[in-house]
Amino acid sequence: MKNLKEIDRKSGSEIKAFQDKELQKMLSYLQKYSKFYQGVFSRIEVDINKIKTVEDLQQIPVTTKEDLFLNNDDFICVSKEKIADFITTSGTLGDPVTFAMTDKDLDRLAYNECLSFGVSGVKSSDTIQLMTTLDRRFMAGLAYFLGARRLGAGIVRVGNGIPELQWDTISRIKPDVIIAVPSFILKVIEYAENHGIDYKNSSVKKAICIGEPLRNQDFSYTTLAQKIKTKWDIELYSTYASTEMSTAFNECEAGKGGHQHPELIIVEFLDANNQAVKEDQPGEITVTTLGVEGMPLLRFKTGDIAYRYIEKCSCGRNSMRIGPVIGRRKQMIKYKGTTLYPAALYNVLADFDDIQDYFIEVSTNSIGTDEVVVNILTTNATKEFIKSIKDHFRAKLRVAPKIVIIDRKVLNAKKYPENKRKPQLFIDLRK
Fold first, then answer.
1. Which domain holds residue 369?
2. Domains held by the chain: number
3. Fewer beta carbons under 10 A from the terminal one: N or C of the chain?
4. For residue 59, which phi and psi values (nearest 5 degrees)?
């Protein structure tokens, strides 16, 4: 893709005019090549030529994860010969979905991540250490690699895990930036402390963080981020992305939400009835991809709930920003009259250094309401410690879930199953 001369710094009206024009191109493409959307347009009897603006999208039904799962092949808009790479979603909320990417889509992915690196202050002179997998049909690792090459930065593909190898690489290659899951950064720090590594004076100055929240709703650091910063004073940048979007939203130095790339994606914020929410209300992030050739999506509901911010950022960009994700709509818990999202539970658990690892299970009890069990791995199995955890939950969230102490073998079997690409931190057993 061509660089569109920093469209995110243009005026709001210019950005909107650009997106309205690109939307019309995308609708025409779907009408011509997408079996799934041809069926949608025929069923609702909408003349897509009359869809002129982003606001007009309300005339078209949303696309759901279930649609993708049940009609996976019908979303593919190209012949098999044009597919250059096959990727699958992580299956966080169910079975994975396959995404077909063409050469053009891979170029778009590289462009997206190059822009995202730039938002977070990564430069062509930097060397990046990738602490996430590049295999197992994972889009993010591939995006980081392609984006670094487009940016002109160096990159070393270490992959996830193995703190010893991470430090050996840092010692040998002296990267400026690491890309990692925040909780793994704590394990890297712990390894350094236990082996006498002077990590505070290493070459690493910045971390691009994925998979876990760094910010609270007021943009202050989460407990997890605070723990990292207290031990290792490096810059932390959070990101928001998904395979379905093929687009990332990175924080800039202001740390006030992830910036949209207007040339790559249209974003709506919808309520449970698929109506647009007011600007000061949280809504489900719903995306329409621009410039995707293999499997473009129209009004795809991500399941993630967040606020949006449209005022000009102090970094000079006018693009919309997505705030910290409050939670996934399907993961909402109604526990003893209190509405919770898993992230709130994670934040409480992060306050306890004696909790080595954990996962949360939610099920339906005998009276049909949600039951929450927090399974923890700890060396402190005293009644006093369990009581302190419950008291902390009550102080923070007004309710206290059941706490169960488990051993490493049980935790590994449930949280880190071999057939899953990501740890299963939240296990939903509800009917």
1. 332-428
2. 2
3. C
4. -75, -10
